[in-house]
Amino acid sequence: MAxxxxxxxxxxxxxxxxxxxxxxxxxxxxVTDAVRRQKDIEWMLTRHEEEAAFAAAxxxxxxxxxxxxxxxxxxxxxxLINGLYDAHRSRVPVLAIAAHIPTEEIGSQYFQETRPTExxxxxxxxxxxxxxxxxxxxxxxxxxxxxxxxxxxxxxxLTGDTASQDAxxxxxxxxxxxxxxxxxxxxxxxxxxxxxxxxxxxxxxAGGGVEGAREEVLALADALGAxxxxxxxxxxxxxxxNPFDVGMTxxxxxxxxxxxxxxxxxxxxxxxxxxxxxxxxxxxxxxxxDIRGEQLGRRAPLTQGMVGGVRETAAALLPxxxxxxxxxxxxxxxxxxxxxxxxxxxxxxxxxxxxHPQHLTHLIDxxxxxxxxxxxxxGTPVIWASRHLQIGPRRRLIGSFWxxxxxxxxxxxxxxxxxxxxxxxxxxxxxxxxxxxxxxxLTAVQHKLPLKIVVFNNAALSFVxxxxxxxxxxxxxxxxxxPDFGAVAQAVGMHGExxxxxxxxxxxxxxxxxHDGPALVSVAVxxxxxxxxxxxxxxxxxGFALYALRTVIAGNGRELxxxxxxxxxxxx
Length: 572
What we know:
The protein is an alpha/beta fold. 42% of the residues lie in helices and 15% in strands. Helix 3 packs parallel to helix 5, helix 3 (49-63) packs across helix 17 (409-419) and helix 15 (357-367) packs parallel to helix 22 (502-514). It starts with a helix and ends with a helix.
């Protein structure tokens, strides 16, 4: 009879799991030894368990299938938490095996003792402890099924001594995801159609839930004469080749998306939980369609909420709509978008002086493959990515867009790259984020993952500085004394370059992208480049004025001159 650990590994292999990300430890010995003897699963050693959890999340985000990570007892599995929170909030299926101290020592304040079921419960859809062989493989099957069906994190807590015991059952369950079709009732659909038919100006707000529903959403927009505004997680599914697209809204968006929502009589929310209440229209009727009923009305008061998949609900709603003959709202929104897009495209042009981050992002976009996977770090890289990357039908855009954690992009990229080593995976890393977890570079080299990392090196936590300016606070504690990241990459065995002159940039990117292995290019970008939100309220304007005054009083007037020079293109 196999051991519990062997049965776990056999079950994972039978369900298509190809790798487990983690750091070994004595409480995990039975599991890692079972992996050693199972030829279908690769042990992906990382330098930190947080990195392992993020890598599993990146793998799951790219494939939509279950991915696995593991950590040893106490501090080992606690390090998983941040990456698991990210997977949980991004709604990707991840199974975490959290080892625990010996069973007989639980509750005795033993060495490295924690309470993992309590620690992980807030970032998991399932979290239970295996204390006897009789619970297995049933608990594993429940954990896997819950992660897959709820698209979230399942944590299986396993003591080392239990893992090494003989299994009572050698059953190897296989778990397949169900594919239900969910639509609102006919009465609800008719009510929604009546509301939309009676309203003059309709705008659609599309989120990540429009994945797989592209044609149905475009048909709705055509019938309603509705511009489509997208949230960040909807960008990769709805923006490209879309005659109704008017850009993003929110803190990362730009003016045309904001105006299209502000000026509508009815807002139709499709598969989005867009969190920023200040960007919702104040007087419009709001209808929301989401497969998760608990999200309805969470962000703004609703005229009507409906539970359903976007694709099937849009298809059922379309025949009930009267095609709008007046296209004025759509035409005005598209015209505003064209003008806004032209202004953004202008910012991509490199003039004299420091390298503009918009120009760097534009070059990445031009030089990357048509099926590239992009992973921008939280902070200014995600702003430039959302505004200046063109995500076509074969490209992907993955990131910590809900949990919003620094240092996520590179380990997420490791997971995505492990899925397909021939597919180009490009990380847009912040210098602060990259420095948080430099061990990721060692992981890429050890596993020969040909990840491409472009560092937006402005020697600062620049997004924090923008937030400080908007709040009227003098920048403090945000400067970074960085190493030469290109030389660091070379030292660990990667292709590495550092660029500070615009004329050297394209060549460096081309060499890195062509390199057969992991590569890093560190680019010195303008620290003072501002990322203007589409809506600047009186409080923010006052904040900038106070920042300017306090900066002068603090004796840092030169910073204001640099700020004005760097952003003259945006302000004039």
